[in-house]
Design a protein that fits this description.
The complex is a heterodimer of chains A (about 130) and B (about 700).
Chain A: H1 2-11, E1 16-20, H2 24-34, E2 40-44, H3 47-56, E3 62-66, H4 74-83, E4 92-95, H5 101-111, E5 114-116, H6 122-125
Parallel strand pairs in A: 1-2, 1-3, 3-4, 4-5
Helix pairs in contact in A: 3-4
Chain B: H1 2-49, H2 57-88, E1 96-99, H3 100-117, E2 121-126, E3 133-136, H4 138-154, E4 160-168, H5 177-181, E5 185-192, H6 216-220, H7 226-236, E6 240-245, E7 251-258, H8 294-303, E8 320-324, H9 328-340, E9 344-348, H10 351-361, E10 365-369, H11 377-386, E11 395-399, H12 404-409, E12 414-417, H13 422-437, E13 441-446, H14 450-460, E14 466-471, H15 474-483, E15 488-491, H16 500-509, E16 518-522, H17 528-535, E17 540-543, H18 549-560, H19 569-581, E18 589-593, H20 597-609, E19 613-617, H21 620-629, E20 635-639, H22 647-656, E21 665-669, H23 674-683, E22 687-690, H24 695-706
Parallel strand pairs in B: 2-4, 8-9, 8-10, 10-11, 11-12, 13-14, 13-15, 15-16, 16-17, 18-19, 18-20, 20-21, 21-22
Antiparallel strand pairs in B: 1-3, 4-5, 5-7, 6-7
Helix pairs in contact in B: 1-2, 2-7, 3-4, 4-7, 11-24, 14-18, 18-19, 21-22
The chains are: A alpha/beta (about 130), B alpha/beta (about 700).
Chain lengths: ~130, ~700
């Protein structure tokens, strides 16, 4: 078993993704999709949690961010993240199941970020 | 009659409101439904894809079933949501020019394999009398066509499905003003050879949740919402849908749409009032640490006005002098004097109040007693002059000991020896008033080399903020100085007609310009003897060469007390660049201790802009550990209010380590807690700053501690 794990670890890609979602099951399912490609996944279950991770690690290729989270929501968290010069080039993809799509897309454009609606594009995001 | 009408109106209003609530509820609920479904779908798909190959066929089909059921549910939720959005008007349209060719190719790709799977003929017929394109919302149109065609294929077992697109000439049956007024109308006719719809059912199928037969749903699936949505969307696009059918003989649905978009007749979308909230993009450049309790404490502070100053009676346009003075009697004298001169005065009796009050009252000048109970006035002066936002405020030092030279060199506007004579006090306040009224600062450059003086004039040029005059000889300069009031004089040491030392001595002898700062800008390599002599008369001595021009700008701006904001943009940039290049903070390593990760993040963000290495700790214990692992920390920023081990305790523990004896520790305390300051210093903190922390002030304070 250890040999297998060791092997898996060595195959982990350099692409490191931070996934932020307050729901454990969402984190789990996103991880399930992404782990096939051996991305290095780091998970945070709140905006604060994401900030905490980003204090120490800056080498993410991408951040997947839930929009609806208690306390600090996705947009607020992204605002704080993008204030920091070191992090402002990391693309953030917002994930929302909410359906005020025009509204959110508008915000997404302001952010120059993408927004995906997982329930409608499950197949797309699973490739 | 009237009563009945009113009551009906009221009912209608209530109904509308209920409908709005219903739509809002549905929108929210569908989100709640989708969230768990999302995970369910993804995980079911992971299962049936069976990557590890350890599921048998039956288990894979179970997983597939879970997935397709979930998919159906999502479809239902989407439909409900679309319908509720149409009904409540929270839907927007985006009219664009759309080629008919694009419509047919979309339809063909979408339905080609469905027709092949069901063995049905599928034809698309596009009338060539139509224009090339129409103006409509492509997404909504596609949605309608998809709905109608899906139905046609669903209810047709054998035969064919036909889409015919042609120009309609008033062959619609229902009156529709949008269509009547349209120049040209296009019809999309979808005809099938399916089960058809009996006459008595033809009206209800457009109602939500209705299918022609109660049992239809079980056989054919579907939510029964498709037609309601389609009709709503057609309405939104300014058109309508009509149906012709006979049971057993197939159906024909026709969508009529205006070819040209007419905003006047197209249904206006309602403004969504369900906007979640407005997220402002970051506009502030430097984050400031937030505290929640500021308001209460501010109110408290306003009540505690022991000096009886003007803080509670200020109105816009008042010119305020900040008096930093702990002696209440002298403070009252200063307030009276200020009133005599038509000024308002606020008094800070503690160091901790100084910058809060500067921020709040935006004073035109500050008088500063060097001996404060809890801080050195020199440090306060350094903080003002270090801070790019405050350094233009003239500071008038008042001290019991003679230290005029030091005060001038550190950028004070004037120096007064205690006890002040009435005359001196009058001079002080009239200087405050006059200096404030003189918006354009007058600068004299004494320089015999024309090229040099033009360089100097060009770098110092700041439009209206400065008036620059040039004298090319010493005697001429002295003449000008006798006749005019200058705010700063820049002198070259080597002039043809007079010795440099003689010139500056003579300038300082002209009594009326006692407060005029003098800056020596010379290529001469001064001996230490010369320097000592010069320093008695000159505020600053700078070595002249091409690279020091920006330094000259920086020093002159400071001596002239010009607000950084009033400089030309390119000059601001020069100064900012210079400051960041020479910044003592560059490359320093700071440990930030705070239990709130947002504060840690905000400070890290700010510090990184100044190339300060930042290490963070979320608790006192973690801070101790960091200090053990990192021997090269230059300064510590310590939040006092932390759970478990608070800032006092942590500071004490850090100080107990011998190697940390000289480590600067800046405590961050809550505002207006007077006892806290003493407690911080007692615990071993080098200094303190109060919340809410202004980043500029914090950086200044750190510079003061790191200069040593």
């Amino acid at each position: 078993m250890e040999a297998v794990n060791g092997h898996d670890l060595s195959r982990k890609s350099d692409i490191k993704i931070l996934v932020v979602d307050d729901r454990e099951d969402n984190l789990f399912s996103i991880e399930a999709i992404l782990e096939k490609d051996n991305y290095t996944i780091v998970k945070a279950n709140s905006g604060r949690g994401a900030l905490k991770i980003l204090l120490q690690q800056h080498d993410f290729s991408l951040i997947l961010m839930d929009v609806q989270m208690p306390e600090l929501n996705g947009f607020e968290t992204a605002t704080i993240i993008y204030e920091r010069d070191k992090l402002k080039d990391i693309p953030i993809i917002f994930i929302t199941a909410h359906d005020y799509d025009e509204d959110f897309i508008f915000k997404g454009i302001k952010w120059e970020a993408w927004i995906i609606f997982p329930s409608r594009s499950t197949r797309n995001c699973c490739g | 009659m009237e009563e009945a009408r009113l009551s009906l109106e009221e009912k209608a209003e209530q109904l509308q409101l209920t409908s709005k609530y219903k739509s809002e509820f549905l929108a929210n609920m569908s989100h709640e439904l989708r969230t768990p479904l999302n995970s369910l779908l993804i995980l079911a798909q992971q299962l049936y894809e069976n990557h590890d190959g350890n599921l048998n066929d039956k288990q894979v089909s179970y997983a597939k079933t879970i997935h397709s059921c979930g998919d159906d549910l999502i479809q239902l939720i989407n439909d409900i949501l679309d319908l509720s959005k149409i009904e409540s008007g929270y839907i927007s349209t985006d009219f664009v020019k759309l080629q008919f060719r694009d419509i047919t190719s979309f339809v063909e790709t979408t339905f080609k394999h469905i027709s092949e799977n069901k063995n049905l003929r599928f034809s698309i017929d596009l009338d060539d009398k139509l224009p090339v394109s129409l103006e409509t919302d492509v997404q909504r149109l596609n949605q309608i066509l998809k709905n109608l065609l899906s139905n046609a294929f669903k209810f047709t077992e054998k035969g064919e499905v036909k889409l015919r697109i042609y120009e309609a000439h008033r062959n619609w049956k229902q009156g529709n003003p949008n269509l009547e007024h349209a120049q040209r109308v296009v019809a999309f006719e979808i005809k099938d050879t399916g089960i058809g719809i009996s006459k008595d059912k033809q009206n209800i199928i457009f109602e939500a949740f209705q299918q022609a037969e109660g049992s239809t749903s079980r056989k054919y699936g579907g939510t029964g919402l498709g037609l309601s949505i389609s009709r709503g969307l057609a309405d939104l696009l300014g058109g309508s849908i009509e149906l012709e059918s006979q049971a057993g003989a197939g159906s024909s649905f026709t969508l009529f749409l205006p070819i040209e978009y007419n905003p006047a007749i197209t249904k206006k979308e309602k403004q969504s009032n369900l906007t979640v909230s407005e997220y402002k993009l970051a506009e502030r450049t430097v984050p400031t640490i937030k505290v929640n309790d500021t308001k209460d404490l501010e109110a408290l502070n306003e009540i505690i006005n022991e000096m009886g100053d003007d803080r509670n009676v200020l109105v816009g346009g008042d010119k305020v002098v900040l008096v930093i003075e702990d002696d209440i009697r002298f403070g009252k004298i200063m307030i009276e004097k200020a009133h005599e001169m038509g000024l308002k005065a606020v008094v800070a009796t503690h160091f901790g109040d100084v910058f809060d009050m500067v921020n709040k009252y935006n004073p035109i000048a500050v008088t500063l007693d060097v001996k404060l109970p809890d801080a050195s006035g020199w440090r306060v002066l350094d903080l003002f002059k270090n801070d790019i936002n405050f350094r233009h405020i003239p500071i008038h030092l008042i001290s019991g000991e003679e230290n005029r030279l030091l005060a001038m060199q550190r950028g004070a506007r004037s120096f007064q020896l205690k006890p002040l004579k009435t005359g001196a006090l009058n001079d002080l306040f009239s200087d405050i008033v006059q200096y404030n009224e003189r918006k354009k600062k007058r600068l004299l450059i004494v320089e015999d080399n024309e090229l040099d003086s033009s360089h100097v004039a060009r770098i110092l040029d700041n439009g209206d903020a400065m008036g620059i005059e040039i004298a090319d000889a010493g005697l001429k300069a002295l003449e000008l100085i006798r006749e005019n009031d200058y705010d700063c004089i820049i002198v070259d040491y080597m002039l043809p007609d007079i010795g440099g030392l003689e010139l500056v001595t003579e300038i300082s002898n002209i009594k009326k310009i006692q407060m005029t700062p003098v800056l020596v800008y010379s290529a001469r390599d001064f001996s230490s003897m010369e320097r000592t002599q010069l320093k008695q008369y000159a505020n600053k001595i700078l070595l002249k060469d091409v690279t020091s021009l920006d330094l000259l700008l920086e020093e002159t701006v400071m001596l002239l007390h010009v607000d950084h904001k009033d400089l030309l943009p390119e000059k601001r940039k020069l100064i900012e660049n210079l400051r960041s290049k020479n910044d003592v903070l560059t490359g320093k390593k700071v440990l930030v201790v705070d239990d709130d990760v947002r504060n840690l993040f905000a400070l890290t963000t700010a510090f990184e802009r100044y190339n300060i290495q930042t290490i963070t700790a979320e608790s006192g214990q973690e801070a101790m550990n960091v200090l053990v692992d990192n021997k090269d920390i230059d300064i510590v920023l310590m939040d006092i209010m932390m759970p478990e081990m608070d800032g006092y305790e942590t500071t004490q523990k850090i100080r107990r380590e011998h190697k940390n004896a000289a480590l600067p520790i800046i405590a961050v305390t809550a505002k207006a807690m007077k006892g806290d300051r003493e407690k911080c210093i007692e615990a071993g903190a080098s200094d303190y700053i109060t919340k809410p922390v202004k980043i500029d002030q914090l950086l200044s304070l750190m510079r003061v501690w790191l200069y040593k």
